[in-house]
Amino acid sequence: VEIVRTAAAALGSAVGWLVNVTDPAAVVVGGGLGLAGGRYWEGFVRATREHVWNDAARGLPIVAAALGADAGLVGAALAAVGREDLAGHRARIDEQLDARPATA
Fold first, then answer.
1. What is the spatial distance between Cα 53 and Cα 49, in angstroms, rounded to a whole number?
2. pTM of this prediction?
3. Going by C-beta distance under 8 Å and a sequence separation of 6 or more, which residues neighbour residue 36?
4. Residue 83 has pLDDT above 90, yes or no
5. Would you say 48 and 85 are in contact if contact means Cβ atoms under 8 Å apart?
6. Residue 95 scores a pLDDT above 70
7. What is the full DSSP assignment across the chain?
8. What are the φ/ψ torsions at residue 51 (nearest 5 degrees)?
9. What torsion, rounded to 10 degrees, do the Cα atoms 40, 45, 46, 49 define?
10. Section 77-88 average pLDDT
11. N or C: which end of the chain has fewer CB within 10 A?
């Protein structure tokens, strides 16, 4: 339990710093971490929000990637072939954000 808490806090701290630097509209977590639920996911979300400096940005959406564990692979493949037509993927991301459950 302590290892899970520490790992979630460490990743949340790093992602919170990235939010501070990049000011994204949302955080989408792919791969195995995006599939992790329970205490790990809750601790990660909580730690991320604790490390965001801007009060207005603290409530930004933090969601798991729609492609789950394949998100990184699909992104790398699209980048490798230079595909620029990502409108369909953007629409699915927007739908996922709209349908997301409220997070802590």
1. 9
2. 0.69
3. 44
4. no
5. no
6. yes
7. -HHHHHHHHHHHHHHHHHHHHH--S-EEE-HHHHH--HHHHHHHHHHHHHT---GGGTT--EEE-TTGGGHHHHHHHHHHHT----HHHHHHHHHHHHHPPP--
8. -100, 0
9. 160
10. 66
11. N
